[in-house]
User: Fold this.
Amino acid sequence: MKRAFLLSFFFVGFLGAAFEVNLLEVDLQARPGLVLPFSFIVRNELAQPEQIVLYLGDWDRNEFGENQFYQPGTLARSSAAWITVVPTSFVLGAGEVREIQGSVQIPNDAKPGTYWAMVFVQGEPRLVPYEGVMVTVTRRIGIKVYITVEPAEARGELRGVEVRGLNPLWAWVKFANTGTRNLREVRATLRVVDVQGRTVAEASAAPVPCLPGAERWIRVNTDFRPSPGVYQVLATVDYGGEALLGLTLRLAVRPLSLFPLGEGLGIPQDLDGNGFYEDVNGDSLFNEVDVEVLRGNLMSPVVRANLRAFDFNNDGVVDEQDVKALEALLAAIPAKLPAGR
Ligand SMILES: [Ca+2]
Ligand SMILES: [Ca+2]
Ligand SMILES: [Ca+2]
Assistant:
């Protein structure tokens, strides 16, 4: 009936341990009208007593998978009102542990599907030294509680594929959970096929979870550095349902067509043959001058027509971030390329 994940303890806070819990997730299968118990343990790691409070909240993830938090009852599929925990407020002595009893009352009229909420375990605000000043830190841990009323439906859609970086190639795959079941493992795969029909790249992303009603961009990295040509990029998503989802995209990689970025400059050069043209001013050296020439020519037609040569952070666009990436490259490997200083 009950599955508890992750049996080790989890610390909270970036300023040293304070308290910990022994699980971060509760996943319950349920029927309408049932009452389901769960429990977890809180331990105080401090050398002093800690006032602990427990409360419920709603949460979901944004389309890049980051948690977002809301007041309880905000979301349509919130189970916060079904959950009680005891005790909700107590003092834990130094090194002490306390078992928390939770219970979920599934309403008689609950429709099939996954409902979810979060039990927050929060300490008291404390003044803590941080980078030379005292800051107030309130530590909290959230325990995700999923309740699935059967028969929940697993359903998904593959909504888009966007090839971004080309050195090496990576893409965003957009998935949507259009069913009512929480999908624990959504697996996206990319396959690149050349004009001869040969598979030239194949890669999978680590599985990601996706809540009912949520959309998720999944980044799939490959180690493929396409030479100019036309390719088919096939994205597939396996969300654990009946169907494997697929979407195909045509990718045309044009040959570079480089010219000097300004009067008196040379043709940009790739000094180490890795596909990035760090010698932006074409003087066969890689130094600060290249960073400045790139900074002053981000909107140049030559840069716009040859994005992949100057997309130093490999995100599919050329902007200020690439100036920073080129600067970082210069700082990191000054000795690797002929440096004019
Ligand atoms: Ca290079
Ligand atoms: Ca140069
Ligand atoms: Ca970029």
Summary: Residues 156-253 form a domain with the Immunoglobulin-like fold (CATH 2.60.40.10). The pocket of calcium ion (ligand 2) is lined by residues 279, 281, 283, 285-286, 289-290 (CB under 6 Å). The longest helix spans residues 320-332. Residues 1-9, 11-15 have pLDDT under 50 and may be disordered.
